[in-house]
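Quick start: read one record
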Amino acid sequence: MPSTLSDSQYTTSVQTLVKQIQNNSEKKNSLFELASLYFTSSDANARVLRACQENLQSTQDYLKAAPESKRAAAHNQVKKLQKELNDEKQRQLLKRQHCYKSIANICINILKLAEGNNQQQTNTKSAKLLATLFMLSSSEGKNRKQMHQLYKPLYKAVLALRLLDKMLLEKKLSNTYIVARYQPETRFSSVPNKYTQFQLDVAVPVIIAAITQDIGMQHVEIQRLLKGADGSIDEFRVLDKETRIPLLIMNHEQTQDFISNGIGISVYEGEDPNKKLRFEKKQNNRLKFVLGLLSDAVKPSKNSIGNIIKIPQIYSSFVLSTKPDYDFQDLPKVITILNNSAIHSAICGNANLCFVNLVGAFPLGFGVIYVKSQQASDQMPVYSFAIVTRLNPQQPDTPTCRKVTDMSESGTESKDFRLLPENNLFYAKVQSKLESVSKETLEKTHQVHVAEINDLKLPNHEQGFWNPYRYFSINKHQNLWS
């Protein structure tokens, strides 16, 4: 499924997908808005359905003992109430199907953007999507928390897919449902708009679990706890343990409820009863798999499938943090957080190792500043700017990057390169390589980079990293994977 989108079209398609998942619109047609509507109306819908059922049952009971003179009227009333019950069931079924079609469409759009004909193409497409989400959402302004909240479900879903593949390739998964459906040669589809059985039975449920993991937060009671009755409280504030734990439990319960009763399964549209049974069995197996992923992700055991969701959740909650304190420089510390979680058995060590080797220490889209690895003895050391652009680095601290500025005289070197730790100015000890360079030369070099990147706020080499948010916001700078 190769992408044919241009860079500006691609970025627009990513933003459109984000809005399909979570938005604040008049139409209220994003997935999270549909969940909010479900939570608002579910109790009332249950009462209406129960009233219809009770009225019908009461009238049927009356019909059994009704005198002959009143049986015809009672029979007509039963037919009327039966129709009312069927109409109500159909109305609620249509609402569920609307939610189901919404999330199914989102899943297909994610597969289109994140997966290709093979593993290599898939890794490239997923790296592009992850880096794009990171750079689009890495605003330094007051909207950073809101942006991160919007982009996080999609970001987490892509990470979960790639962790799933990584663990399968390294034979670190033993779950029967997944392994029984996995064959490397049929993992991906080479036919546009056609999807393999693995993608439909496994990848799509993983996506659903990842993007809906916190959808229970849309419940009216949770929203009241987060924002206050009048919406005046900061929902991104740090919660005390007495508030946070019950809220997380409630979120999990409401998420499971929405998936089971707000989305449900697809409806078979044919007339063959045997095919209907097989269809519903497959649909229910997928639903059971989603619910299992979410339940296991609460506190995954060593070999639990919940690690596929839990590890990307921890990672994305740090990289796309909604907390008040957020320091771009701290982002590489996320690997330490994951490793500590594995040490304390909060996540599986093998799954964590797969994930760390997948993403590396520097998030995709992270801006690095580096010195060249080979300098002629008579050549003055210089530094340049780059962006982390690829998954599966050779070592976690050796990211694969795309050059943004190039101080080489020839300019014929490859645009993509592996950044060794000894050349990465993020590390304080590497700064010593520039100690012999005069302030005038360093300032002149900095001005060249400012002009080339067209960013007056571009930091100098002493910071050791940079935020590509402003750079990537310009369409012509989005072509980092050509």
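The first helix runs from residue 7 to 21.
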